[in-house]
Amino acid sequence: MELKDAFSRVNAVSTDPDDLHTHGFSSNIYHPGALHSVIVYPESTEDVVKVVKIATKYRMPVVPYSGATSLEGHFRGHEVGGICVDLNRMDKIIQINEKDSDMVCQPAVRWMDINELLRDKGIPLFFPIDPGPGATIGGMLSTGCSGTNAVRYGTAKGEWFLNATVVLPSGEVIKTRRRSRKSAAGFDLTKLFIGAEGTLGIVTEVTIRLAPLLPTNVAVVHFLDVRAATEASIEIINQGAGIQCVELIDALSMKATNNYGKSKRKWQEKDSLFFKFQGPTDASLKETAQMVKKISEKHGSTGFALAKNQKEAEEIWTDRKNLYYSGLSLIPGSKGITTDVCVPISKLPDLIHETRKDLDSVGLVSPIIGHVGDGNFHALLLFKNDEEFKLAKEAVGRISRRAIELEGTCTGEHGVGIGKKEYLVEELGEGTVELMKTIKKAVDPLGLFNPGKLYPDRTRQEK
Ligand SMILES: Cc1cc2nc3c(=O)[nH]c(=O)nc-3n(C[C@H](O)[C@H](O)[C@H](O)COP(=O)(O)OP(=O)(O)OC[C@H]3O[C@@H](n4cnc5c(N)ncnc54)[C@H](O)[C@@H]3O)c2cc1C
Fold first, then answer.
1. Of 156, 172, 422, 455, which shows the fewest CB atoms inside 10 Å?
2. Got the DSSP string for 250-279?
3. Signal peptide span per the entry (predicted)?
C-alpha cells in the first residue's frame, strides 16, 4: 500500500500474477523459481531510494532485475516474498563522450542497443563486453560477466565500468569514483559492486568505457577432436595473433546448429574453432588469417574457411551466438544446465577431454562450447525428467570440482546466484568467503538485498 502511495504513476507498482511469475521464474534457468510479492518500476535514482526506504521499514527483501538473462537463479524471489525492483524503465543513454571513449547511461541500457546506436550515429566506438543477448549494463556489472570478446578485451572485472551510482541498503546514494580513466583514490569501489549480484546495492547509473571499432573478419576451421582444437587455440593465442574471439564449438554443437534450422549454411559436424580476427588494417586481417590457418594445420585441421564479406561474417557469428538455443533444440522440450568452469589455459585440453568422457559415460546429451582463448567453456547438460536432472546436477558438481582442482573456478562468467554457492568455500577458502560476508554485513546489516544468493549458507562446505 505504501509503495502504491509513493508511486502514483500508472503501472509503477504491480502485483499482477503474470507479472509476478515473469519476474520470479525464467526459462533460462533450471533452478526452481519463486515469486516476489510485488514488482516496482522506478524511473530514477530518487525512485529507487524511495523503494529501498520502504523495504527497510518493513524489512522486505529487495531483488534488482534488469535483462533477466542471468543463468543461476540470480533474480528469483525469496521464500518470504519481497520487492522486485525492475529497472527496465531506466534505459536512457545520458552522455556519449566520443573524445574520451566513454558513455554515461542508466542501468537498463542493453549492450547490443549501445553498439547499434553507436553504429547508427557513425561513431567508430563499441562496448566490447558481450554476454547474452538482452543483457543490460546494470545486470552485466552486477554479474561480472564477459563473452566471446574477452580474449581481446577482458571481462566486466577489467576497466570497462569506470564509475557507478549506487543506492545502498541504507538509502544513501554514492558514486564509486569519477569519469577519469584512471584513479588511485583509495579502494576500487566500482569493483566492489562488480559481481555483487545486487546484494550490496542497486546500480542506477554507470559510466562505461568504449573501444575503437576496428575491421574484423571471421573464419571457421575443423579438427579431429576437441583436444587438437584446444591445443591449436592455445598456440595461436600465445603467438600473439590478432584475435578478438576464439570459440570452440564441438561436433555436437555443430550438429545442433544444423538441426536448429536458422543457419544459412550446412556445417560439417566436427569439433571446430570459430575465430574473429581484428584489424587494425585489412592487410593485418589477412596476415592473421594466414597465421591461424598455418598453426591449425599443424594440429591436423581441415576445411579452413574465411568469410568472404561482412554479411557472411555476420551470418557465421550469428550461428555462434545462437548456440544456447540450438543446443536446447537437440532434445525438444528439454531444459539445460550450463556449466561455466574456467581454468588456466594450459589445463583446458585435459579438462574438456575429461568432461566429454564423463558426460558420455552418464549418457547425457551435452553440447560443449568454449571461450577457449580464456580457458572457459560451457557444457549444456540437457534433461527432460527428474532422473536426468539428478545426473546432470551430479555432473556439474564433478566438473566444477575438477576445475577447482586444476586451479580454476566453478564460474568464469555467469556468476554464483544460487547455483554455484556450494563451491565457493572449496574454491576461495573459508577466510575469503568470510571476508565477503563481513563486507555484506557492513553494507547491508539487515540482509535484505537479494538474500539467499552469492554467499554460501554455511561457512563449512556441505558435502
Ligand atoms: C543465451 C545466453 C547466452 C549467454 N552468454 C553469456 C556469455 O557469453 N557470457 C556471460 O558472462 N554471460 C552470458 N549469459 C548470462 C547473462 O547474459 C549475463 O549473466 C548477464 O550479465 C546478465 O545481465 P542481465 O541484465 O540479464 O541481468 P539480470 O539477469 O537481470 O540480473 C543479474 C543479477 O544482477 C542483479 N542486478 C540486475 N540489475 C542490477 C542493478 N541495476 N543493480 C544491482 N544489481 C542488479 C540481479 O539482482 C541479479 O542478481 C548468457 C545468457 C543467455 C540466456
1. 172
2. -HHHHHHHHHHS--SS----SEEEEEEEE-
3. none
